[in-house]
Hints:
heterodimer; A: 720 residues; alpha+beta; Neuraminidase; Serine Threonine Protein Phosphatase 5, Tetratricopeptide repeat; 4 domains; six-stranded antiparallel β-sheet; four-stranded antiparallel β-sheet; 43% helix; B: 754 residues; Beta-galactosidase, Chain A, domain 5; TIM Barrel; ten-stranded antiparallel β-sheet; 13 helices; flat
Amino acid sequence: MHRRLALRIALLGIVGIIAALSVYPRQVRGGVPYQTYYRDNYNQQYQIQTAYMPAGVFGRELFAEDPAHPGELKISPLSQPQDLFIDSRDQIYIVDTGNNRIVHLDKDGSLIRLLEPKDNPLRRPQGVYVHTNGDIYIADTGNNRVLRLDRDGRVLAEFGRPDSKLIPASFKFDPVKLVVDKRGFLYIATLGGYQGLLQLDPEGQFQGFFGANKTSASFIDSVKRLLYSREMYEREISKLPGSITSVDINREGFIYTVTKEVSKGQLKKLNIAGLDQLAGKGEFADTLSDGQFGESIRQFGRMPLVSPQLNDLTVDTDGNMTVIDTRLNVVSQYDGNGNLLFFWGGEAGDTTTKLGLVKLPSAIASDSANQLYILDSENNVVQKYVLSEFGKLVHQANGLTQDGRYEDSEPLWREVYRQNAFYAPAVLGLAKAAYKKGDYEEAQRLFQSAGGVQGYSDSFWQNRLLWFQNRFGLFMNLILGLAALVYIARYASRRLGWRPSLLGERIRKPRGSIGRHLKQLGHAFYVMKHPLDGFYGIRYEGKANPLSASIWLLLAVAAYGFMKARTNFIFNPSILFEAQIVNALIQFGVVWLGFVIANYLTSSLTQGEGRFRDVYTASAYAMFPIVLVGVPLTIVSGVMTLSEASIFYFIQYGLYGWAALLLFWQVQGVQNFSVGETVKSLSLSVLTMLVIGILLFIVFSLTSELVSFVYSIYQEVVIR
Amino acid sequence: MKRRAIAVAATAGVIGLLLLGLLWIVARDAPQEPAAPADEAWTPTTVSEPVAIGLPDEADFVQVGESASFKLWADPVTGHFKAESKAGGRIWRSYPDPEHWEAETAAGIWRSNFLSPVMLEYIDASSSNSQTKMTNWMEEKGVMENYEKLDNGFRVIFHLTSTSFRIPVEVRLVDDYVEVKVVDSGIREGKLSLLNLKVYPQFGAQPSSGTDGYMLLPDGSGALARFEENKIKDKSIYRETVYGPDISFYNENTNRNAVRMPIFGLKSGEQGFLGVMTEGEEYAKLFAAPAGALGQSNWIGPEWQYRIKFFQSTDRQGRNGFYTFSKERFQAASRSVRYYLLEGDGSDYVGMASRYRQYLIDERGLSRLTPERSHIPFYADLIGADLKQGALWDDYILGTTTEQAKELLEALGDAGIGNITAIYHGWQKWGYSSYGGLLPVDRRIGGNQGMAALAQEARRSGGKLMLAANYSLNNSGRGGFWSLNDGLRNLAGTLQESALPARGKRVSIVSPLYSFREARSDLDTYRELGIDGILYTGGIGSALHTDFNSRNRASRTEVLRGQQELLRETAEAVGYAAVEDGNFYSLAAAGHLHRIADDYSYDIFVDEAVPFAQIALHGLVTYTSEWGNLRDEYETEFLRSAEYGAYPAFVFTAASSDEFKKAYSVRYYSMNYRDWLETAARQYRKLDEALGDVQDRFITEHRELASGVRQTVYDNGMAVIVNYNAAPYSAAGVEVPGRDFAVIDRRDTDEHGA
């Protein structure tokens, strides 16, 4: 109940922000009515040149014979059309679901014929496929059948629900989309058919299910499985794998599917064995292996509240896949390996129909020239798009890279990069070409600019190696020289009777208050060596005071900030998109201060001997490892590569572990606790911190709610 | 006991005081009721008889005016009029063409709307949940009061008897135009509130059947909606605020270009008209309905706005609330539209644009410009600096220092580009995204001294240096700006904000009057810097917002006048004023319009973009299209700039392009000038060939020679033929390679015998 309330408040807030921002009218200056974007591996969105230009609207003016006045033509617009197919001759087939017919247009959009089998009428058909041999297959959803017609529209065969023991009794045969492979085998997507595509042979015999999605089992599900009875668990409908929404096939025989109700693997490219070729997509799988498809457009840095819902896809002759999204109304294009190329979308406005803007996309298709056609089931038209100059260039370059012809692709990528320096595929394409040519300096720079972690690490490794190799002689000379120096020094000291301590005594120890402060600061080093003793000293012997503690605390915060801001991006990718560290510093400060307060409160209740100033001082001294280890580690990380990642992470975790241990000893030493008491005290402290946090949250949110409540009442009284 | 009594009394006293205070505040903040209109005092001298709904009888018309080539006839019964051409006998009617009226299928209120001289929308403001209603003079069996003949026209007050609106209208024939004027001061309302008004909505309206024609919309550079049968009953209409949206009021999101020109037009067969809104146009929306959307005719005209709904928020953040209308009407002295009557060859969009150009010369003080050099200008927009997110505070991204700018201009010169106008952006402290308190120039790019030196250098090499200035936003608080005092507020008192493109950081929108004061106070320093001019971006010259901030209260009209005044002062003090994507009211004072639209908004009922704005402007002021390195289609749009006579403009930095990847505002993806030097030089040379000799010439002809081949002809006989197709074009001895253009010099036909 409370959660729902909180959620609603949060939602209202977000809606409010969006409403407030959208008040400022968007500036439109000529050009196409939608924006094209690219999103890099770190979810940063860049507006780029338009990749596809609007090129026309088809299917607006269709005429059919008027049944009331035979011989006369009557306007007969599309009605909730659901599917679109373009055959090998670029002719267009639209499944006009609401009118129970197939509309056949030529490539310029003029009507060729209306396919309406009179003696065998269709009922709300939803899919069509035209085989290269001219046969037309129709998913006649309302009649639970698939019709096969010859090119003149005569019925050749009718496939009903296949008869097989292997098909579960609960399986409903509501075909929605289908493809037919070269052999004449049918792959049929059915409504709610979570078993996958129904595969039939040319005679209509059941061959099996193909390309089923997997159920996604979360942690909560496994808990439910433990706790629920069998009946209860089986009632969880959402545990069925998503049923395939649409299907396409390309010349090589790969079968592509899209699925609506899944959060991963929305788009799949299945080989003959039904294996997804896109799993683990992306050039740099280490940073983007989420396997999600379908993009969403951020406005003013905010993501939309709903996730994409893919409805259909098309594969062009180069293997690029384009998907449409019914919910967010975004078109996204990926290359044959699932790397994002572009995505675009725009607001249609309530009253306007625009060239290039689709209100409710229901299907997408592409022709032999890689032009896109999107079917709009609300405006009842087909919108056509052609590649822009930029889009064409990217396709050419990417095609070469896909074929592994990096060097051929280089001049093209260079031109793309010249036109758009923010377009990561161009930067990566150039970086790969540079790496291949052995220009590691350039490769390193480019990989860094595009945020390619593995590539950067590899080229840096090469550069570092080169650096060392070039200076091998110098280093050897240095080492030899040093060894000689040490030897001479030892020899000389033995001969002349010098002792190192003499040097130490020469330095005059500073006296007075400055000296005292320095000594108290220096106590940190003692704490490192003898933690228990050191903290005891802070409580009982006045070895440190709040001033020196505050200095160490400030240094620790600064060092923490330094780590956040300056650690090499291959270990700390967040600096690529979130440069500011203020939030991290505030978090650090709040947690630390919360711990100090909570620890003081709980310890004093459990007969601890520490005063507040002691807890404060000792906790600040416990942060010393961050300064001592964190700063050098951060500096060294700049010359590390991924192969040394384990060393880096070992030291980093070690550093935090050490600080945590020091906190433990701090409690023990300052409060004069046994180990058992310390554990108890620490657990209580953590609990107290949580309670304080929750209380603060409630107080703040209630107060601000109250203030705005009073204000709105006042406004209502004044205005109405 | 006694103490308790005192305590009770004290508490009661305090509560009482608090309540009194609250009452006082409520009374103070409550909107003032306007004084009741003195409606009773009004007694007309003459009153006509109500008429039945129907077409006026042309036999009743009497001639009320005559000019050299036209006659004006008025109907004393319905208040309609018609204009007749003496030469061709063509007739322009303020009511539907009787020839086609039989075919009209509209019924109900819309039928009488078409027949009525006045139609309007109103609301009953006394009830909070009343709906907008539509009515017209004929539907209400209205009467005409005080009909009288004027010199070359007539005057009448349309009285809508049931809703008791009185609308005074004057119609005049002057030379080649008919002017229809609504006298705002004479409007009378009863209990109801007038929202908007259309006078003679069907002027010149024509159905699509049989005739070839189009409506000209002021969308982008100008767009044509050709007459079509509209068999599919598309209901799309065009309704856009002239001079762009007003952020203080509700704006429908149509995703269209802002209307920059107060014009519209209609051509049917050999006859047409150009409409120019000349007074009160800042309170107009342009309304156009293609055939079949509302009635069988294509009709177009101004919709005069008197009240627009706005969002009355009830919480501090301005999130919750409701839409309502203001009590007061928008006040303009009068609202006038001129219908320039065009016939024959001059009735197409080129004729309309030529007539508008003549209007700009005759009435708006524009004149044919004198080219400073034989070579066309090249506009180089330089980005000084911007901000991006840094670890603790924002990081400064250095784009171009004044020293680098010098090198950059030299490099452009070496590449063969002469006559460069450099426009410096983001020169203020902390760069582009740091708005407000602009001067002095940031030291990191060279400071005031660097800028002054650059100005000298630019002039020495025969160019110009302008500074781009945005006075309409403030997020730095510099210059003593405090948003509570100096920010733009809507009628509900909500401060209006914009957002930086990246991360949605909020930026206050400045009260227009404050921005004028701030800009004015900077003019002296600009002059001292020795720069040649100012390019206003972000609002001055391009956006009109009503301000309800009580310290700076300004109506849309006042903001418009203030902007014009500021532009004039700038031109006087600094030498030159320019506006980015400016509204046409800034013309005359502003000598250059930067980055104007050369496309339309892709509405399906609209067919194509035409260079109406460019035809009207070429030879009067300079203008450019979108930057050459930020185009969707580099080649196509370059060809279009040749067709439209637009001078080249590029946006440059000396820093490499990816520096600006994370910038808050300047996220243009390719700005390094080295990457574009070659392209820019090539395009400049080609455009210079085409446009160098026609800088002061008017465009007299623009048409399509073949599909994808367009010709633009200038008044000295030079012509540019642009071929957008891949295949070469050849006809009449002219050869144009694919994706290219050719210049044809027909200036001296005797010698060359072209």
